[in-house]
Each structure stands twice: as structure tokens, then as C-alpha cells.
Design brief:
Layout: E1 27-37, E2 40-50, E3 55-59, H1 66-73, E4 81-86, E5 89-90, H2 96-102, E6 103-107, H3 117-122, H4 130-139, H5 143-148, H6 166-180, E7 184-188, H7 196-210, E8 214-218, E9 230-235, E10 238-243, H8 245-251, H9 254-277
């Protein structure tokens, strides 16, 4: 029963590791290589910088190595070559506790505890006041929803948040991150599990939390990264293209191909939705929709 507790952690602090002191922060990947299996390299010499207060997005086909970057930043694993630094300090020389305290993450699959909505938001900073919790919820655009519930912030969310919709769970996760007020923000495919309409609603809340914060966005849906300061396109573990949204479209390369495919898929999805809402085609024929 307790065998897991007896296991040695895979990643341990060095004996002389120091706490991270944030001044920027500036994130830098310097010729980073990584593999889980030596015969299958995941990242092959990736280099980029995220300036303080800026947003860099990382996109690419499935299996390109996008989510590995967030795991390395959070130091779930150590690089196998090169270095990752924050404000010039190698992550391997920093205590894990201080590193993770400085990073806020909104993942694709939000983890909520079987407790109240208020508890799940306050988990970002347990000593936060009631007013701070409500302010974070308002910024995440979930405050009015919570306050309309019979039990308000005391409403239980159920096991893994099953009593909330996907969009509501993500807003609670965003509120938690806002309350934590991290220096570094990682959005790891934060909207990829949502439908197109909910994604658009959530995106405005994500824009609020990432404003003036050093942010790394790992994304599948390119519509969520069009405003990033720089976009890196990963392919087979290397940076195949880089630039902002407009510049990458003008290159007519991999990014532009991905953009066109996703735009066509979104248009098809919206057409299906319109058809479902107007099965008799009244709107298409210029007639008032059936009641």
C-alpha cells in the first residue's frame, strides 16, 4: 500500500540548489535536447527565448514535442542536453518548490478536487481573502455563474469536477491561476478539449491572465495563438518555422497549411451547427426560422 511513498523521486534538487528569485522573468531554451528513450529523441536542439512580459506560442503536428516543453519547464524531467534558464539561472540549480511556485499552469485536463468551487479557486493561494477569491473569479468570467448558484462559492463540484461543464471547469482553473499570480504562465492546450464557441469565450479570460506576464502557450488550435508575440512551429522535434501569425501565413509553409485545414474544419463545424438549429432551411431561404 505504501510502496509508492518508498520510491525515490526521479528528479531531485542538488545539494546546493538555491531558491529562484524572479526579476524578469526571461525564459531561454538553449540547444535543448530530450528523450524518454535514447533511441527516440523528442527534442533535437531547440532554442528560443521568451522575453519578460511577452507571449511565445508553440504549435505543430501531434507528436512534434510541444507538451514536452511544458513538462521540462515545470521540471517534471531534466533536459538530456543543452539548458533551460529563467533569468539566466539553470533550472537544475533551482529548488523545485521555488520554481513551481513561480509558474502557473492551465492544462487541457483541469484537475478539480471533490470540494467546493471556492476551495478549488483558493487552492491557487490558500491564504487568499474572500474578496481576492471573488475578484479572481470575476476576472476569469466565472463569478456571475458561481453567484447565481444556490450555494454560491460553497457549491460542491463533485469528483474531478463532474458537476461542472468543460468550460466552467476551465474558468475555475483560470481563476485559480489568477489568484496564484505567477510570474510565468504556461497554457498547455488549455482550450483544445472545448467546442469552438466555448473556446472563444474562454480565450478572452486567458488573454486577461496572460497580459504583461511571461507566457508560453502550447496549442493545437491556431486560433488561440494569433496574438502571440512569436509563434514557433515544431516538427519532428525541431523548430521548423518561427514568426508572428501574419509573417507565418505569408511564408505559405507548414503553419499556413495547418491554418487552412483548421479554418476549413471550423467552418464545417459551424455549418453543421447552423443546420442543426435550422433543420428545415428557413434561414437559408431568407424566411424566419420555425418557432
Amino acid at each position: 500500500m505504501f510502496k509508492l511513498l518508498d520510491q525515490n523521486p526521479e528528479i531531485e534538487d542538488k545539494a546546493n540548489a538555491k531558491p529562484l528569485v524572479i526579476s524578469g522573468p526571461v525564459i531561454r531554451f538553449d540547444d535543448v535536447t530530450f528523450h524518454y528513450d535514447p533511441d527516440r529523441p523528442i527534442l533535437k536542439g531547440v532554442s528560443f527565448e521568451v522575453p519578460a512580459g511577452k507571449t511565445v506560442a508553440i504549435v505543430g503536428p501531434t507528436g512534434a514535442g510541444k507538451s514536452t516543453i511544458s513538462r521540462l519547464l515545470y521540471r517534471f524531467y531534466d533536459v538530456t542536453g543543452g539548458a533551460i534558464t529563467i533569468d539566466g539561472r539553470d533550472l537544475r540549480d533551482i529548488t523545485q518548490e521555488s520554481l513551481r511556485s513561480a509558474i502557473g499552469m492551465v492544462p487541457r485536463d483541469t484537475v478539480l478536487f471533490n470540494d467546493s468551487i471556492g476551495y478549488n479557486i483558493r487552492y491557487g493561494r490558500p491564504d487568499a481573502s474572500e474578496e481576492e477569491v471573488r475578484s479572481a473569479a470575476a476576472m476569469a468570467q466565472v463569478g456571475p455563474f458561481i453567484e447565481a448558484l444556490p450555494k454560491g462559492y460553497d457549491t460542491p463540484v463533485g469528483e474531478r469536477g463532474l458537476k461542472l461543464s468543460g468550460g466552467e471547469k476551465q474558468r475555475v482553473a483560470i481563476a485559480r491561476t489568477i489568484l496564484k499570480a505567477p510570474s510565468v504562465l504556461i497554457l498547455d492546450e488549455a482550450t483544445s478539449a472545448l467546442d469552438t464557441k466555448t473556446e472563444r469565450d474562454i480565450q478572452s479570460a486567458l488573454d486577461v491572465v496572460s497580459k504583461n506576464r511571461t507566457t508560453v502557450v502550447i496549442a493545437h488550435r491556431l486560433s488561440t495563438v494569433v496574438n502571440a508575440d512569436e509563434i514557433l512551429v515544431l516538427r519532428d522535434g525541431v523548430v521548423a518555422e518561427r514568426g508572428n501569425h501574419v509573417a507565418l501565413l505569408q511564408k505559405a509553409g507548414l503553419y499556413a497549411q495547418m491554418w487552412d485545414r483548421q479554418r476549413e474544419a471550423t467552418e464545417a463545424e459551424e455549418q453543421l451547427l447552423r443546420t442543426a438549429n435550422d433543420p428545415d432551411g428557413f434561414v437559408k431561404r431568407g424566411l424566419p426560422a420555425a418557432e
